[in-house]
Write a structure and sequence with these properties.
Region (Disordered): 343-363
Radius of gyration: 20 Å
Structural class: mainly alpha
Number of domains: 1
Strand content: under 5%
Protein name: Peroxidase
Distance between the termini: 37 Å
Site (Transition state stabilizer): 67
InterPro entries: Ccp1-like, Haem_peroxidase, Haem_peroxidase_sf, Ligninase, Ligninase_C, Peroxidases_AS, Peroxidases_heam-ligand_BS
Disulfide bonds: 27-39, 38-313, 58-144, 277-342
Number of helices: 13
Number of strands: 8
CATH class: Mainly Alpha
């Protein structure tokens, strides 16, 4: 803790303020950074890539690390704080620092697995847990073809209290409840629009569910979970006809493909009048997918903090591989299978993959 406190003091000394001199530098691996304080992240990133992400893969640990960024950051409620009770610190590392409390919240089911993988790496480096969680998520996403190069900030102090329960939205929550939860979490920083909620859900393009249906852990939300592409927004709009495992699970809706799980919340957001057109706007629009998710992730990753008090170290994030897929209907699906929900704009025309009806293998 002494080392981490010292690091925060050192980082603060390099902070951009009026009249301050920011030292540009070349780090040990050749990375050129606008602020030399960011060079402390290079060995952390090397460790993350080698020992957490299996040499730089876009796999399960990336999915889970990205999930952890959200579950840590969204744990803040100005509405709760207004009652005189601690409302959470946002992106403050509390989900790991209080691992005997927060992972037991129902919405955080399963986060203990990635916490157990991240903790030994955090212990080896002079970095706050709050910074590490967001760094690991951004670095993991950089391994996924088609992803944006996300922003990374450092200088967050670690949490001293756990976040309150029920601040993380659940897949069985209504659209009203989900939009209200985001509005509350961001209310001190100008709110969070329904369009931004949809943008943040682009994370589901490289996600999978382990605990919604425990009989089929690792079931993805689209047919290309190793690619950061628009298939998630296409396939969630297709008419649901089956459950990939057992039916009747809380928070699950029928999906269109065998081996693909659909969250109830995703299904309803894709069809709600407040979000349907924004949802559809991502179909076959890789550039918007990248820019909108990058902007939403940036806002989420600094929840509870003043950006001007942090150091922008985005230049240490690797440039992700180029997109590796084109938007399409899965084999066996056509425009006739789309449940059109946007009243103002027709669904885009897309090709259909050849062959028999698609079946997605668990990741």
């Amino acid at each position: 803790m002494v080392f981490k406190a010292l690091l925060i003091s050192v980082l603060a000394a390099f902070q951009i303020t009026k009249g301050a001199l920011i030292r540009r530098a070349t780090c040990s691996d050749g990375t050129v950074v606008a602020n030399s304080a960011c060079c402390v992240l290079i060995p952390v990133i090397q460790d993350i890539q080698e020992n957490l992400f299996d040499g730089g893969e876009c796999g399960e640990e990336v999915h889970e690390s990205l999930r952890l960024t959200f579950h840590d950051a969204i744990g803040i409620s100005p509405a709760i704080a207004a009652t005189g009770v601690f409302g959470g610190g946002g992106a403050d590392g509390s989900i790991i620092l209080f691992e005997d409390i927060e992972p037991n919240f129902h919405a955080n089911n399963g986060v203990d697995e990635i916490i157990d993988e991240q903790k030994p790496i955090i212990a080896k480096h002079n970095i706050t847990t709050a910074d590490f969680i967001q760094l690991a998520g951004a670095i993991g996403v950089s391994n996924c073809p088609g992803a944006p190069q996300l922003n990374v900030f450092i200088g967050r102090p670690d949490a001293t209290q756990p976040a309150p329960d029920k601040t993380v939205p659940e897949p069985f929550d209504s659209v009203d409840s989900i939009l209200a939860r985001f509005q509350d979490a961001f209310s001190d920083v100008g709110g969070f629009t329904p369009a931004e909620v949809v943008a943040l859900l682009a994370s589901h393009t490289i996600a999978a569910a382990d605990h919604v249906d425990p009989s089929i852990p690792g079931t993805p939300f689209d047919s290309t979970p190793e690619l950061f592409d628009t298939q998630f927004f296409i396939e969630t709009q297709l008419r649901g006809t089956l459950f990939p495992g057992t039916g009747g699970n809380q928070g699950e809706a029928q999906s269109a493909l065998a081996g693909e799980l659909r969250l109830q919340s995703d299904s309803e957001l894709a069809r709600d009048s407040r979000t349907a057109c924004e949802w559809q706007s991502f179909v076959n629009n890789q550039a918007k997918l990248q820019s909108a998710f990058k902007a939403a992730f940036r806002r989420m990753s600094i929840l509870g903090h003043d950006e001007s008090s942090l150091i922008d170290c985005s230049d240490v994030v690797p440039v992700p591989p180029a997109p590796a897929s084109d938007a399409h209907f899965p084999a066996g699906q056509t425009i006739d299978d789309v449940e059109q929900a946007c009243a103002s704009t027709p669904f885009p025309t897309l090709p259909t993959d050849p062959g028999p009806a698609s079946s997605v293998a668990p990741v």
